[in-house]
Design brief:
Strand order of the largest sheet of chain A: 2-3-5-4
Radius of gyration of chain B: 25 Å
Strand content of chain B: 25-35%
Largest interface: A-B, 48 and 52 residues
Order of helices and strands of chain A: EHEEHHEEHEH
Number of strands of chain A: 6
Largest sheet of chain B: 11 strands, mixed
Number of helices of chain A: 5
CATH topology of chain A: Alpha-Beta Plaits
Oligomer: heterodimer
Strand content of chain A: 25-35%
Shape of chain B: globular
Chain lengths: 128, 464
């Protein structure tokens, strides 16, 4: 089943130099294992490919039902150097929550994950 | 000296209440007064310093030796003077910037003006400012290498504006022990401003790693003010009540290191496990190693539970010994930048903005401007989320936002003259240029480094 992160998680992001961090938090404690299993490092790398210049790191905080992602090279140099509107990475939070992850149907049912809706266009590239 | 009298006892034992009144320089001016008037608190904690604030203050001090501190703090103190003088509330702030003595003098003047000089004892913490010692330190073999790039500081030495070591709770505790009721520091860590009063009141030892880590995490949770009490909260944001009247957070600290985050009654916002969790993960790196001068806190040990309306209990926190280094915040001149904007209206707003960007870039190239970077964003289409935002569906308007950066000031200045002409000689249905020519800003960049703890000595003076 396809699950949009925005429906099962909330998030906050911030900066450290040219790195943005996104803490992704399960909306319900019982949904954290889904994040831990299916919101993988590779999936997040792929999501932000071409959007950030560097690599991604992933940390687990089961005590808070949260994962922490570090997005390197995300802020055009960061701080005062950056020319970006979001120089401090404040809104990378919802950029990550646009992700749609694949969860096996039985697990999704057991965890009572919301929505088998179709989320067609959240990650599609621009046609320039 | 401890101030047992200022703290209260609850059925769960003695508590110490530390209220957050400012999350950064520029935060809500009403918050400090509301925190001391909304209910009983023991300490008011005001955090003013962001990474580049020190360099701005250093520039101000160069122009006037009596400046170089957070001016807002003077107004904040004025608004809470009755609580300090009559109710025993103590204030701890890193408002001193690069000139804590001048900040203290300004506070003294305000106290005198209101006839409460005797009741205000200002503790001044200095020693974090390494700028006067920089060449001596480099000569003595401290490279102050950039933590991100590894480059030695000598590569930008002649452009350094400020250099301050992040200092911990020890000098703040010393000031409190000497009887200060307003403590003014320079570049203290944000978290030490909260941990220090808890450690002082409960007498936590310098190797009581778990309690010290708990104090640091209490500080992390409230250091951004209302960002843990409903402000900037994504979780069910549309249901958070009365943000106009938002209550700033207060730590109710307990001797065992556990604490409760709460806010005053009859205030807006919300303190819940989700709102506090969002702040816990804010600006987080490796959650097991939140390094401070006093202790390394482990964020994977934090436990949160709802303990009543707008009350979240935090417990179980562990820590371990710190490193023998202090982080140093260095700011240096790194060229110039300018950002120009224009707004294009429907129909085809995005296409028009894209054409304008193309025209602008052709003109920049034809002029031969020397720029390191040109960054174009389309606000309303992709400025914040890039390609992840999906396709633009002919939006009602799009803001073209072009930023440039470079070391040649004349080129950056010339760029700022190329925006307005596009209104008459570029694509149509364009507006939003009333602000005039973009401003050229000098870039003051941040250079994080480490230094041996042993070479940084802090001094505490209590003015009587």
């Amino acid at each position: 089943m396809k699950v949009r992160l925005l429906d099962i998680a909330h998030a906050r992001s911030g900066d450290k130099g040219d790195t943005a961090n996104v803490g992704v938090i399960a909306r319900k404690p019982e949904w954290y294992p889904v994040l831990e299993r299916y919101l993988t490092l590779d999936a997040v790398r792929e999501h932000f490919r071409g959007v950030i210049a560097g690599d991604v790191e992933r940390y687990e905080l089961p005590n808070l039902g949260a994962l922490n992602f570090l997005l390197h090279g995300a802020l055009d140099g960061g701080g005062t150097l950056s020319l970006k509107t979001d120089a401090q990475g404040k809104v990378y939070s919802t950029a990550l929550l646009r992700m749609v992850i694949d969860v096996p149907d039985d697990e999704a049912r057991e965890a009572r994950l919301p929505g088998a809706k179709k989320w067609p266009s959240y990650t599609r590239s621009h046609r320039e | 000296m401890s101030s047992l009298s200022s703290a209260t006892t609850s059925p769960g034992g003695r508590v110490v209440r530390v209220a957050a009144g400012q999350g950064f320089w520029g935060d809500w001016l009403e918050a400090p007064r509301r925190q001391v008037e909304g209910g009983d608190v023991d300490y008011l904690m005001l955090d003013y310093l962001a990474e580049v604030t020190m360099s701005i203050l250093q520039k101000q001090k160069e122009r006037d030796p009596k400046m170089g501190y957070a001016r807002d703090f003077v107004g904040a103190i004025e608004s809470v003077l009755p609580a300090i003088a009559k109710r025993g509330v103590r204030v701890i702030a890193n408002a001193g910037g690069v000139n804590p003595p001048a900040c203290a003098a300004a506070i003294r003047e305000v106290a005198r003006k209101h006839g409460v000089s005797d009741a205000v004892r200002i503790g001044v913490v200095t020693g974090d400012d390494l700028l006067p010692r920089l060449d001596e330190l480099i000569a003595a073999g401290h490279p102050l290498a950039n933590m991100e790039t590894g480059e030695a500081l000598s590569t930008v030495r002649d452009r350094v504006l400020s250099a301050n070591a992040y200092i911990g709770s020890v000098p703040i505790i010393e000031a409190l022990a000497k009887g200060a009721n307003v403590v003014v520091t320079g570049r203290s860590t944000d978290t030490a401003l909260t941990m220090a009063p808890l450690r002082h009141e409960f007498g936590w030892k310098s190797d009581d790693w778990n309690r010290l880590a708990a104090g640091i995490i209490a500080g992390h949770i409230i250091e951004c003010g209302a960002q843990c009490s409903g402000g900037n909260c994504l979780y069910d944001w549309e249901t958070i009540p009365d943000l106009a009247n938002v209550g700033y957070p207060i730590v109710e600290g307990h001797e065992d290191g556990s604490f409760v985050i709460y806010k005053h009654p009859n205030t807006g916002g919300r303190i819940s496990v989700p709102s506090v969790t969002e702040q816990c993960v804010y600006e987080m790196g490796d959650p097991r190693s939140y390094i401070t001068p006093d202790v390394i806190a482990d964020f994977t040990s934090i436990h949160l539970e709802q303990a009543g309306d707008d009350r979240v209990r935090v417990f179980g926190i562990t820590g371990r010994p710190p490193t023998d280094k202090l982080k140093v915040s260095i700011a240096y001149r790194a060229g110039f930048k300018a950002v120009g904007t224009l707004v294009y209206a429907w129909p085809d707003a995005y296409q028009k903005a894209r054409l304008a960007d193309k025209v602008l870039r052709e003109r920049i190239a034809a002029l031969g401007l020397t720029l390191d970077t040109i960054l174009t964003e389309f606000v309303g289409v992709s400025a914040t989320h890039g390609r992840l935002a999906g396709p633009a569906n002919d939006p009602p308007e799009v803001q073209l936002r072009v930023g440039v950066r470079g070391t040649d000031k004349a080129s950056v200045e010339r760029f700022t003259r190329e925006i307005a002409p596009l209104v008459l000689n570029g694509p149509p249905t364009v507006t939003g240029f009333a602000g005039g020519r973009p401003k050229v800003e000098e870039i003051v960049a941040y250079w994080p480094a480490l230094i041996d703890k042993s070479v940084v000595t802090t001094t505490v003076e209590v003015l009587t």
